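Quick illustration for those who missed Monday's session on complexes.
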Amino acid sequence: MIRRVLLVGYEDQDNLGIRYLSGRLLRDGHHVRIVAVGTDPDVLLATIQAERPDLVGFSLIFQYMVPEFARTIRTLRAAGVCAHFTIGGHYASFEPEALLRFIPELDSVVRFEGEETLAELVASLDDPAAWQRIGGIAWLDRGQAVLNPPRDVSIPIDEYAEPDRRDIDYRRQALPTASVLASRGCPWQCSFCSIITFYEANGTKGRRRRDPLRVVDEVEGLVRQQGARLILFQDDDFLAGGLNARAWAHQIAAEIQRRGLQHEMRFKIACRSDEVREAVLKPLIAAGLCHVYLGVESGDETNLAALNKLLKPEVHVRAGEILRRLDLSFDFGFMLLEPWSTLETARNNLDFVRRFTGDGWAVAGFCRTLPYVGTPIERRLRAEGRLSGTALDAEYRFLDPRVDLLWDFCLMAFEGRNFGKNATWNILRGLLFETHLEMPCRSRDEERDAAARALVQASNGVMLDVLENALDLIESGLVTTLEDPDLLDLARLARSEDASIRRQLVAMERNGTDEFYEALFR
Ligand code: B12
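Prediction with cobalamin bound:
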């Protein structure tokens, strides 16, 4: 029975989660449409009324989006949409009961990797008794959540259907950018991350790497058939897995060069600092590697231990030096505070960030550790009785109330700089990436790159100075509330400096980006 399916998800970069699902359903001959989640449920409603799907699948890539999805789903039901509603993703997989209670308008939850489960669900939609027995789903039985036994995912990684990209015209993008997944899972056990627990519960613990030739086939198709020029490898850690993983990565690099693709594209990977070595990266650079996302997370030893990163701050510093020597741009994830942080660890982190980014080679920014579901940190905080709220909006206070004050100050002073999609941090990262990017048919504008780095250096410097002053005030014990005039002054200074950085950014953008890309790719 050919079914009509609509898949809805967040798509800033290619949402490979729903695109793999769609690829699997297309293999069974179903009619599938992909829709990026937007803020206006009425737009989605109109699409549903036009498409008349039998099933709508919602992809919850970020748990903070649950309330938004709930609003949308309720609006659709209230408008009379009776298609089967199912949902998937990390939060849905770990908290199916809470999600079904929070959004009883859902019919089912598909837990963990969804390709085969969703295909079976779509094939048996007409027969509730049949789909309610499918392994790996949860569903509501007269208001009661039922969790079916987990599914045995035994499909070899190279047998997954290719992600569906029929609706993407990469050539229309200023910089045609495609996402590729060369592997799934991660062997590391960082306590703030749910990847290891997600794939463990999926029955596929660790990392599964695809055949290098198949990976390069996909890249070649994207570049030569679809016009992509930048490939984002979305693997959690492209080099995880020691010697074998490095050999695998070098096979991909050699195959890219054998096909001459390094003359047509560039690519980005994510990895750990202790995997950054010249001998490991040089073959990747020869194949087109231009940028690295580093999982740094902290520059303080006790924080790194609490985050179970299994490495020391010095390793980060060395990685930064190597990436500079290799002329690779990089950005990095960083948590100024984790639940067991003290004022001392915060100060160590500021000292580290000044050392790591003082020259403006990378943008300094930070967030704090969030107790995401399925993470060891969430479990530890719950066991310590420090989590308030439900799993969905779990909150914690720091052990030292002065650290709470410091975090509240950070939100007050750096809201616009560090948080949200239009944060200066994000825009500066995009700018540095663009100005440092050297493409086969265009050399870098060194002057522009230097100007961008100077702007980043200034923005990093202001953030660190303001934070260090705030820390001094709070540590002195003279300041105990956010309303303190000195803290308010510092926050005002941070915001006004950020506003001036943004004005300079706009000026740089105005005489740069679009014409640059237009020129490069037309
Ligand atoms: C690419 C990516 C991004 C991209 C965005 C991608 C996009 N869609 O636009 C960028 C870089 C922008 C990004 C940003 C962030 N990210 Co991110 N990101 C990822 C990453 C690395 C890969 C996603 C992916 O392609 N996965 C591979 C696909 C195949 O797996 P999947 O998405 O899980 O989908 C499968 C199943 O979950 C299931 N499924 C999923 N959806 C559905 C729907 C249905 C209907 C069904 C049946 C099944 C199903 O089946 C799918 C196929 O098997 C993941 C880590 C990961 N490995 O997933 C983190 C991840 C999703 N990100 C995470 C976070 C926290 C963030 C940030 C908040 C980080 C930060 N502090 O800034 C920001 C938020 C940005 C924002 N706008 O709010 C967390 C989310 C944790 C949580 N519980 O919410 C993750 C899990 C990383 C982690 N280690 O914890 N991210």
